[in-house]
């Protein structure tokens, strides 16, 4: 695969995009864990989710 005189720019662009996608995936994983911890803290404090069955419907 010959990219010609612009090969360096193309490879740097691919690397930048791959780095940004990896950063976004890492951020989503960290945010999901943070959200789960927040939900666990709320549930342990006695706050219940609206979608949880309460038996009083």
- Which term fits the overall shape? rod-shaped
- Distinct helical segment count: 1
- What percentage of the residues does DSSP assign to strands (E)? under 5%
Helix content: 55-70%
List the uncertain runs. Answer: none
Structural class: mainly alpha
- Along the chain, the helix and strand elements come as H
Biggest sheet layout: none
Gyration radius, rounded: 22 Å
Give the integer mean of the pLDDT values: 89
The beta-strand count equals: 0
Distance between the termini: 65 Å
Any overview of this molecule?
- By secondary structure, the protein is mainly α.
- It is 67% helix and 0% strand.
- It is built from 1 helix and no strands.
- The longest helix is centred in the middle third of the chain and has 38 residues, at 7-44.
- It is rod-shaped and about 65 Å long.
- The N and C termini lie far apart (65 Å).
- The model has no long low-confidence stretch (mean pLDDT 89).
Provide the fold topology:
Elements: H1 7-44
Structure keywords:
57 residues; mainly alpha; 1 helix; 0% strand
Give a nutshell description of this structure.
This protein is an all-alpha fold and 57 residues long. It contains one helix and no strands.
């Amino acid at each position: 695969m010959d990219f010609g005189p612009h090969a360096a720019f193309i490879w740097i662009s691919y690397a930048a995009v791959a780095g940004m996608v990896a950063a976004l995936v890492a951020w989503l994983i960290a945010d999901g864990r943070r959200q789960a911890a927040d939900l666990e803290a709320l549930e342990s404090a006695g706050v219940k989710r609206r979608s949880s069955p309460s038996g009083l419907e």
